[in-house]
Amino acid sequence: MWPFGSSYPERTPEDVDGKIYDYHLGGAAGCVLASRLSEDPTVSVLLLEKGLVKDNLFSRIPLLSQNPMMSGLQVVKQLSQMPSALNRKLTLFWAEALGGSTRINAMLLTRGPPGNYNEWSQDLGLKDWGWESVEPYFRKSENAIGHPDAEYRGHHGPVETRQPAYPFTFHPFIEIAARRLRLPVHDDCNDPAASAQGYFRLDQAIDGNGRRISAYKAWLSKETAIARASHLTVCTGVTVSRLDIDTKTRRVLGVQIRRRGQTDKREYYVQARGEVLLCAGAIGTPQILMRRYSVQTPVIQKSKRQADESLIAASGPKINFNNWGFPSFKSHPP
């Protein structure tokens, strides 16, 4: 960090305006994709991020980075009443920083039971999402320091995981109570042979000094961004105002962006030679899709054909979150 070294190569909207890139990305998953795609020096990659890098002492210490009063990373938004959820009001928390909400979350690494993925594959027809298909990527992404001998865990990936000591003295008594109740007790919740419910010791994505390992830290660190600056551009402090979609081919030709905030209304445009990959999270991605169009009912409640027709036919930026509901998940044994 300046003045002790080179700063992170953040770019502004003026730096990317009018340029052409092979790939456009954004969000926490965008850090992973930008890192993997930019391994090829012959392609140009643009990562768009609403927040800034904000890599400082507070953002690295887990207890402080989760505190919205100290880290400067967290956004808190109160939603309006949702008729589809018994008129409840929800409070949402997310981060505006490179790496998304991995900069403020609890850093727990949980894969979920294999039965969930197999249900997607077998019942929903998502053949590439079965457990045998996704499990190699779990291992590839992690370095399970806390389970060095586990064959089902990865040991060479960028995300270090550890099992920290019990933070409170009463935690061992909870484990004792679980055993007396004859609940399943597992040392590793990511063991594919473990039960779907029970008492588990959880892994956290932290380094040897107890500092947070986010998507930014693991895949798009300052060293990586500087080394690939010739073909990787990280543009921060911007929001996507609309996608430039060819209504005939339904291909995204480019992206219009503006500085985040409400004061600067100037629009900037970047063209896509290859693909635009939306990976802005469960809230950000549909929000971007709906900004170009007038959508009166949730896209997720429409069939694919109806959603496509609504997105192509409608016009004008109008977003309505009042009717949005949130899915529930059920666990299955392996």
TrEMBL record:
One of its GO terms (molecular function) is flavin adenine dinucleotide binding. Belongs to the GMC oxidoreductase family. Residues 25-291 form the Glucose-methanol-choline oxidoreductase N-terminal domain. InterPro entries: FAD/NAD-bd_sf, GMC_OxRdtase, GMC_OxRdtase_N. This is Glucose-methanol-choline oxidoreductase N-terminal domain-containing protein. It holds the Pfam family GMC_oxred_N. It comes from Trichoderma harzianum (Hypocrea lixii).
